[in-house]
Each structure stands twice: as C-alpha cells, then as structure tokens.
C-alpha cells in the first residue's frame, strides 16, 4: 500500500511517498532504489520482491528519492547528500532494522543498518553512462559534444542528462562517489539468476528473480 513519510527538503519538510508492506513484524527492510532510469526499470521487480517478502514474514518499505517518481520536490535541487539525508530519515520514520541498496542506491543508503547491496555501482560509472548517452544523442542530431567538456560544464553549472537536470553538486558528487557499504553483504546478479533488469531498455519484471532475492533476504535476516 502507498504511504507517506516526512522528508527534509530545501523548503522544509515534504511528504514523500513509499510503497509499504507493514504488519509490524520484527524484520523491517528499507529498500533504497537505483538512480535515474535504472530506478524505473527495476521498480516492478522491487515491488514484487516486497510482495514475496511479505509472504515470508518480512515488512518492507520502498521510498521515493526526493525529486524522483511521485516526489513533489525539484530534481535539480538534489545532491547525493540530500538523498542520504532522506534515506536516513525514512529509515528512522519506518523503524527499519535492515536495508537493501540496489545499484546506485549503494551511494546513498543508511550505512549503519545491516543488510545487503545488490550489484553496487560507482558514481563515476553512472555519470559516464549518462554522458555517453548525451554525446550519442547529440551526434545523431548532427552536433558534436565531448564527455570531458560536458563533465567540466556539469561540475561548474550543472547539466541536463537523460532528461534530468543535475545540479553542479550532484555531478561533482557522482564523479567522486563510491559505494558506501560497511559490512553489508554484496549480492551479485548470478546469485539470483535471470538477466539484469536495469540493463533493459524498458521497465520489466522477473518474478523468479524477485522470489530468489526475497528468499535470500528473509533467510539471512531471520536466521
């Protein structure tokens, strides 16, 4: 079911949305989604994972990052720091006992919680993919752009990439960021079977993969 939670923002506290499966059980999992388009491509898979976890006795919450999905906050005002603050606030609000960070979510999740990181990704890799897509798009339109020049522009003034207006702080933060896991278990795609949904061109789902992820989490969290 959808729920809201009080999230810090540049204009004060804002109500943000989360998908919540909550029966007040002992294990409560905060899911921190990937960043940018990978967030959209994996959302159905993560919600299905929540359903599977619910059947295995685990509560879960999947909050929106500020500026993303149903968020009313402005994306261009966000940074890795604002997303870290938001996820820490969500963890406290929902009483999370564990965390699952997916891909770029490993750059912004609450590191004090035990849990898992699924195929963590460096910020520079995310930024490189976004820059490559813009350069290719410009080339198809008959314009020449270079990743190095765009990166410098982004660090100084911010940059439009893949339909997102990244602030200078977000560009610089991504360029230097590495996954923040501190003892959380790293899950690889090969542990789940199937193909990586974040690599597909459109959002997708894989019930078997969601079930495998839920079983792994429930067994380790409850064991």
Q: Architecture of the largest domain, according to CATH? A: 3-Layer(aba) Sandwich
Strand order of the largest sheet: 1-2-4-3-5-6-9
Distance between the termini: 27 Å
The tally of structural domains comes to 2
**Rough outline:** globular
Estimate percent helicity. Answer: 40-55%
Low-confidence stretches: none
CATH homology superfamily of the largest domain: Alpha/Beta hydrolase fold, catalytic domain
Main β-sheet: number of strands, strand sense, barrel status? 7 strands, mixed
Structure description:
By secondary structure, the protein is an alpha/beta fold. The chain folds into two domains: 2-121 and 179-222, Rossmann fold (3-Layer(aba) Sandwich), CATH 3.40.50; 123-178, no CATH class. 41% of the residues lie in helices and 21% in strands. The protein has seven helices and nine strands, in the order βββαβαββααββαβαα. The strands form two sheets. Strands 1-2-4-3-5-6-9 form a seven-stranded mixed β-sheet, sandwiched between helices. A two-stranded antiparallel ribbon has the order 7-8. Strand 3, helix 1 (37-55) and strand 4 (59-63) form a beta-alpha-beta unit. Helix 1 crosses helix 7. It is globular, with a radius of gyration of 17 Å. The model has no long low-confidence stretch (mean pLDDT 93).
Name the descriptors.
single chain; 223 residues; alpha/beta; Rossmann fold; 7 helices; globular
Q: In terms of topology, how is this protein built?
A:
Layout: E1 2-9, E2 12-21, E3 28-32, H1 37-55, E4 59-63, H2 80-94, E5 98-102, E6 115-118, H3 123-140, H4 147-157, E7 159-161, E8 164-166, H5 168-176, E9 185-187, H6 189-192, H7 207-222
Parallel strand pairs: 3-4, 3-5, 5-6, 6-9
Antiparallel strand pairs: 1-2, 2-4, 7-8
């Amino acid at each position: 079911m959808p729920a809201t939670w009080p999230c810090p923002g540049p204009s004060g506290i804002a109500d943000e949305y989360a998908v919540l499966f909550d029966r007040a059980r002992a294990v409560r999992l905060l899911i921190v989604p990937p960043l940018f388009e990978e967030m959209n491509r994996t959302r159905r898979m993560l919600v299905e994972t929540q359903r599977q976890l619910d059947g295995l006795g685990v509560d879960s919450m999947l909050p929106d990052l500020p500026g993303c999905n149903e968020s009313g906050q402005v994306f261009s005002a966000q940074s890795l720091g604002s997303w870290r603050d938001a996820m820490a606030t969500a963890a406290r609000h929902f009483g999370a006992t564990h965390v699952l960070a997916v891909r770029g979510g490993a750059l912004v999740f609450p590191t004090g919680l035990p849990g898992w990181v699924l195929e963590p990704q460096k910020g520079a890799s995310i930024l490189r993919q976004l820059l490559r897509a813009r350069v290719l798009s410009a080339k198809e339109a008959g314009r020449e752009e270079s990743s190095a020049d765009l990166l410098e522009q982004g660090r100084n003034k911010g940059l439009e990439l893949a339909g997102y207006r990244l602030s200078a702080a977000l560009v610089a933060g991504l360029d230097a960021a590495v996954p923040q896991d501190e003892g959380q278990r790293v899950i690889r795609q090969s542990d789940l079977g199937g193909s990586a949904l974040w690599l597909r061109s459109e959002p997708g789902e894989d019930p078997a993969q969601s079930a495998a992820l839920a079983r792994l989490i429930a067994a380790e969290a409850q064991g």
